[in-house]
Amino acid sequence: MRLTKLGHACVRLSKDEGTLVIDPGGLTPETDALDGADAVLITHEHFDHFDEDRIRRAMAADPGLRLYASRTVAGKLADLGSRVTETGDGDSFTVAGFEVHVHGAEHEILDPDLPPIPNTGYLVDGEVFHPGDALTVPPVRVPTLCLPGTAPWMKVAEMYAYVKEVAPERAYVIHDGILNDVGISIMENHVGNAAAKAGDRDYRRLEPGESVTLG
User: What is the pTM of this model?
Assistant: First the structure.
C-alpha cells in the first residue's frame, strides 16, 4: 500500500486494486486530490475535512465514485442515494479492494456547552488508521497512525499521550494546515521527541505530496 500525504488532513491510499482518499477538505489545496479515486472516506463535517462542493463535483464527474461518511455528512449528501454510505463505530466494509473498519463515534470536545458531533475514524487493511478529529484508540494493533499534529481541541501533552497509547510503528502527521512555518517547526520537534521516546520509530511530518510505501 502507498500512503500519500496531501494538504492538511487529507491522505490517499493506493494499491493495485484501487485508491481511497480520506478527508479532502477546504484546507487541501490539491485540485487533483480525488483524481482516480474509487472511494472517498469522510470522518466528520467540519470544512477542513469535508468540502461538499468538491465532493459533489467529483461524484458528478465520476459515476463510479463512492462515499463513506459520518452520519451528518451522509445526511448532507443523501440525494446521491446508494452511492453514499453512512458509517459508525463498529462498522466494516470492503471497497476497491480495501478492508475498512470504523472506530470512534465523537469529535473531541470543542465547546463544553454543546454536544459533540459525529466523528468516525477509519482503519484501512489493518494497517493505516485515520482518526479524524478525535484521539480514538482502536482495540486492535495500529501499525501506521495518521497523527493529528495540532488542533484547537488538542494540547501537546495529549498528542504525546495519544501516540504513546496507540504505540504505532509509524506515525505521519496530519492536521497541520493551520500552522505557519514557525508552528510547523515546533510541532515537528515534538513529534521527533515522541519518536525518540518510542525508540526512534518512524514518527514524522510528510510534506504535502510526499509518499511512503507500507507493508
Answer: 0.97
